């Protein structure tokens, strides 16, 4: 019997029940002779059971004597008060206690069995050696000293007692022993069954047990009702996850879902509302789980309090047509400020600088041209407050002037016009003012709102008053920021310096940047090791609107990226990893939703579009204007058609950027996009539509607005070939000696002939040859001879664009 494994889970309260003793008593015995049980449900080890059996056997021995001799002793005398225990018992006690495994120390159950086996014998052999009084007295003492088991006193077979059926325990122990061999295979169920059987046939009625269990269940349900389990549910949750959070089985949850008409399996994801209904139905209290992203934890985007805001310097961008004097103006302003006496001296180009005008600072973006400005806007950086539009007095409004006007308008920033080169004798400012009115820039002197300053970037004439006007315009905007928070702003320029590593010019837009700050800019992290301004002065901090060049970034951030000073570098690195992954996913995944003619109608219907922005590019000014006014006439109550930019020439990258930032569609009329524009449009998902007839263009956009657009074909570009030589061959007409620059040229595809990206002709090929052989196709990098059907006006430098029309499957 040595080392019997307790396979049946025998708990404190069960022992108590089976012995008909209070649980407390059992617990007390265990506390005294073994380890204190934690609660009545604690499963007992065989060692503890042995102690209990020993103890209770002894205890019952004494009681049995009474019952056994009840017939003989009708009036059992109570033990005399303070009766001394029998000397034998006293004498026996130390001996018994000294026995290993006996008394206080646990005894192997084997010994116990042995002893019980001896019991009947001793009972038979020494039936009445002990008197009941003495015995009882000893027995009573045994309650407090259970270990003092005296063999000589064992006279009575306690198994005859009506209250404890010890056979049962022998039987049980035997089963336990037998069970050892089968324990591995024996299921829990089997033992439970045996357990139940034992109990049922034993001391307690199964009925009572069931009643108690029922009571327990009701109690638990009651408690659950009073203190429902609180489950946190996010916007979406898997059914399995919901079940585990509610501490329910998957089947219960699925059943409840089906009951509510939702056919979902464990692996399905359900929304918050559905999950909340299910959870409530299953007796849980629902709380919305708000998932805080690393970005939210790391970056403080809280609004500034009114009282924390302080005035900040305006950030100014200088725009205009090529050679109208942007750089000259910026240089003049910078150098005159240096000359005006501030320490430092040598200025360097860092992308932005600050000057002081009458004690008030103005920040200039030193990256002339709207390309940089638009590139930043395309990345979501709104950094400028005022635009200075430079127009050369001797030249007038040119295509890039118009682009600049439209870019500034789209960004919603005020424009101050600087009519430059006023020192030139041929300067004609009045003509320029006149031209400006065509672009809704009406001079103040003519009753409009546009500030116009005649200047000379060469002599400096009028520059001071231009700067004053900038301050005035800025004042109207009440530009303010909170210097007392961690810095946030935009990357103006960034590059890799051989000696210093990544160098970035940052414009602080809010807060104050300190040397030593950890910053995160796009996917770059770093600590500001050193800060300098455009004068090369070292700074330890930079407040709102201050541009600084910093070193210390881990990698080169992108111009236009947002930067934030953060408290936790480790978390910043984690965020960067996350952003990198998101960028990767974005590149691999579908491009973002932008306005396209295909989904225009549904966006109008959903109220997502109130203005349909269009950029018109055409081959001649007349067509551009005609397309513009025809399109604007399409406006109705729901949608206003706005041509935000209208110009002559091929579609360029700047057009695509403007379209991208203002959610516009580009309409090309007899023009084509250049390669950069095509790449950008694909990247930014900008819809470009090319037409040859105004009517087609108007009709298509009108149909799109009415949701009746049904393009049956789409154009698939095959490739381009550049015309390098032109031959006249008798009988075959003009043949172009071409070089396939990209893609391929196919004999039976359609072509259009482009000259400076303007469509000269559209048609089909008459011939495609390599040397003297006809070809079906000629791939990139090969030369070929191309003849165009019924067309001979081909010139060197022309580009032949080859395409197919493919039916769109619906
Ligand atoms: N006479 C005169 N010439 C000027 C003035 N401003 C600029 N220029 C000249 O105009 C030419 C072009 O000036 P830039 O400042 O380079 O013009 P820009 O607009 O920056 O040109 P890009 O950088 O090519 O876009 C230069 O030769 C300047 O010297 C001016 O006020 N008066």
Keywords:
810 residues; alpha+beta; Rossmann fold; 6-stranded mixed β-sheet; 6-stranded antiparallel barrel; extended; binds guanosine-5'-triphosphate
Q: What is the number of independent domains?
A: 6
Poorly predicted segments: 1-6, 71-166, 177-202, 589-593
CATH class of the largest domain: Alpha Beta
Overall helicity: 25-40%
Strand % is 15-25%
Q: What is the CATH H-level superfamily of the largest domain?
A: P-loop containing nucleotide triphosphate hydrolases
CATH architecture of the largest domain: 3-Layer(aba) Sandwich
Terminal-residue CA separation: 82 Å
**Integer average pLDDT:** 76
Structure notes:
The protein is of the alpha+beta class and 810 residues long. The chain has 6 domains: 51 residues, no CATH class; 59 residues, no CATH class; 165 residues, P-loop containing nucleotide triphosphate hydrolases (Rossmann fold); 100 residues, Translation factors (Elongation Factor Tu (Ef-tu), domain 3); 100 residues, Translation initiation factor IF- 2, domain 3 (Rossmann fold, 3-Layer(aba) Sandwich); 97 residues, Translation factors (Elongation Factor Tu (Ef-tu), domain 3, Beta Barrel), CATH 2.40.30. Helices cover 37% and strands 25% of the residues. It is built from 24 helices and 33 strands. Strands 7-8-6-9-10-11 form a 6-stranded mixed beta sheet, with helices on both faces. Helix 20 runs parallel beside helix 24 and helix 21 packs parallel to helix 24. The N terminus is likely disordered. The structure holds guanosine-5'-triphosphate (GTP). The site of guanosine-5'-triphosphate has 17 residues, from helix 14. It holds the Pfam family IF2_N. This is Translation initiation factor IF-2.
